[in-house]
Amino acid sequence: MLKFYYKTASLVLFLLLCASLSAAFADNIPAKGTVTMIDLGAKACVPCKMMAPIMEKMEKKYAGKAVIHFYDVWKDREPAIRFKIRAIPTQIFFDTNAKEVYRHEGFMSESDIVGQLTKMGVK
Asked: Does residue 93 contact residue 83 with C-beta atoms inside 8 Å?
């Protein structure tokens, strides 16, 4: 029985550590000093699934040029509350001062994302 408590306590500590690391990362979004795009959705919603490969491509294409980040708000509701979203998916673009400059609800095509990032000065 004592082993069970040790395992449970270890698991709880591990989960708390993961949550604090996630929160620390989330505090850095939007990133100051670089353009940031966040996509708030869920891995199980249909338009979000359609955007998943686009988001992966954007992360690779803009690595080192802009921060591109996805939040699954069905698994973690805090970003949905923090960014005041009303529908998923929602894409929010922030300038280098971490100020929101554009918000879009629903599926967003690759060309529209590229266009918005280009308009914000990201090459």
From this structure: no
Q: Would you give per-residue pLDDT tens digits along the chain (123 residues)? A: 545 444 444 444 444 444 433 443 456 899 999 999 999 999 999 999 999 999 999 999 999 999 999 999 999 999 999 999 999 999 999 999 999 999 999 999 999 999 999 999 998
**SS3 assignment, position 39:** strand
From the candidates 26, 29, 31, 45, give the one annotated as an active-site residue.
Answer: 45
Catalytic-role residue among 35, 42, 48, 68:
48
CA distance 116 to 82: 22
What are the chain's domains? Answer: 30-119 (3.40.30.10)
Helices (H), the chain: 2-27, 46-61, 78-82, 110-119
| 18 counts as catalytic | no
Residue 74's identity, in one-letter code, is W
Report pTM: 0.78
